UniProtKB/TrEMBL annotation:
The keyword RNA-binding applies. The lineage of its organism: Eukaryota, Metazoa, Ecdysozoa, Arthropoda, Hexapoda. One of its GO terms (cellular component) is ribonucleoprotein complex. It comes from the Eukaryota. The gene is AUGUSTUS-3.0.2_02855. It comes from Tribolium castaneum. Keywords: Ribonucleoprotein, RNA-binding. Residues 90-185 form the RRM domain. Residues 19-45 are annotated as: Disordered. SUPFAM superfamilies: RNA-binding domain, RBD (SSF54928). InterPro entries: HNRNPL_RRM (IPR055204), Nucleotide-bd_a/b_plait_sf (IPR012677), RBD_domain_sf (IPR035979), RRM_dom (IPR000504). This is Heterogeneous nuclear ribonucleoprotein L-like Protein. Gene3D superfamilies: 3.30.70.330. GO terms for molecular function: RNA binding.
Amino acid sequence: MFYSNINFCSFVSVKENTNGRPQPLLQEPHYGSRPQPYNPYPSEQQRYDEMCAGPGYGEPFGTETYRKSAPPVTAEYRDQRNTHFQQPGAVLMVYGLDPLRTNADKLFNLMCLYGNVARIKFLKSKEGTAMVQMGDSVAVERCVQNLNNVTVGLTGAAPLSHHNNVKDDKNNQSEHKLQLAFSKQPFLSEVTNPYPLPDKSPSYKEYITNKNNRFMNPAMASKNRIQPPSKILHFFNTPPQVTESELVQVFRDYDVVPPKAVKLFPMKSERSSSGLLEFEDTTEAVAAVMACNHAAIESPGTKFPFIMKLCFSSSRSMTIRNGDNNSNGAGEKRIESEH
């Protein structure tokens, strides 16, 4: 076999630059699209559309249709919503919480009435204090305006590990006054190893993908009426055949003072029921919301339980008659209704 030492490069036409180095004949290709202009302030409609893309959102709980049509929560979807929740002025401080009975879920049950809740973090260095990151600054303003200086009753039984502790201190108070204030912190960072609260629940929880947030899109937000705490609660999304005694038992199961009167509304459909609950005072009603909002109620013939939803009612009173919508079986009770 014949081998040649001919330099084949001498036959290739190569452009020479001024310093003697060869230049490529073709320009380096571009991969992917060019950078797009950054828009830090998307429109409200765009923000809600991106956060709640796909079917299933805003439908009532307790039906198989909801669970089958709801899109799966992917990492990309979670990151997208996480970005939208980090808005300036969306963090508030909550002081005066019951250090033994309050946990992240109970605080979420109350705060979600005034806006989307992103994260809740309890402070280990300051007992009875938590930081809450809401969806935006407007939700923070609603919380401060409606919940500051509100008195809360007992939201359940004390953890078993504290039953033997009979010291007469703030842990054994039957009422606690909430103090809310704006925080300078722009957002809450993720806590990978939160310390346990007295009830063994984590001191930090995320609610960005929680479907119990009620302001996730314009349609859902328009159904919410912002009301200050009152002694009358509106309940909805309960089983269609639920009874007054069953509703009262829900609050007893959560170790809170049950309502003294229940009024079921005439059913508009067979999908769910709704009505009013009257408590002795606002203090008991707020405790009931924290403990029993989003409580699961089983219903015969359904695969999944109904998730009862509570909110403060604009009605200041209601009419309860003998044997009609009276959970305590008391005699005729006349209460004026405000509409």
